[in-house]
Amino acid sequence: MAEQGVVYAPLHAAPVSLPEPGMRRQVLAYDPNLMLVRHQLERGWKGARHKHPHSQLIYVVRGCILFEGEGKTIEMDAGDSIVVGSNVEHQASALEDSEVLDVFTPFREDYATH
């Protein structure tokens, strides 16, 4: 991870992890203030309800997910995006095979691949 300047992260060089059944994760470019993560979700995947101190931007590249948070349930299709504030409890599930880009600020130390 670079502390400043330009951080280049080619997709083909980003390792793929399988943090839970139905989810593939690739941590892409990041620095201490910002992190880009690619998630590929299999239809039927359901993430645990959780919260974290990071602000999060979610962008659906393809597919359809169901987002639940702050008393709202939103079906998100390709091209849709949402911002989840710090410490807001939320959950997502894949209604079909989907690809999602997540941006976190600051970066998630638990996802980092130093």
What is shown here, in short?
The chain is mainly beta and 114 residues long.
Description:
By secondary structure, this protein is mainly beta. It is globular. The strands form two sheets. It has a six-stranded antiparallel sheet, with no helix packed on it. A three-stranded antiparallel sheet has the order 6-5-8, with no helix packed on it. The protein contains no helices and nine strands. The mean pLDDT is 95. Helices cover 0% and strands 52% of the residues.
Labels describing this entry:
single chain, 114 residues, mainly beta, Jelly Rolls, six-stranded antiparallel β-sheet, three-stranded antiparallel β-sheet
Strand content: over 45%
Main β sheet profile: 6 strands, antiparallel
Q: What's the CATH first level?
A: Mainly Beta
Query: What's the number of domains?
Result: 1
Q: Could you tell me how far the N terminus lies from the C terminus, measured between alpha carbons in angstroms?
A: 6 Å
Q: Count of helices? A: 0
Mean pLDDT: 95
Helical content (DSSP H or I, runs of 4+) = under 10%
Going by CATH, the homologous superfamily would be Jelly Rolls
Estimate the global geometry from the Cα principal axes: globular
Which class do the helix and strand fractions yield? Answer: mainly beta
Q: Return the CATH topology.
A: Jelly Rolls
Radius of gyration: 14 Å
User: Strand sequence of the main sheet, in spatial order?
Assistant: 1-2-3-9-4-7
Number of strands: 9
Instruction: Indicate the low-confidence ranges by residue numbers.
Output: none
Helix-strand topology string: EEEEEEEEE
Supply the CATH architecture: Sandwich
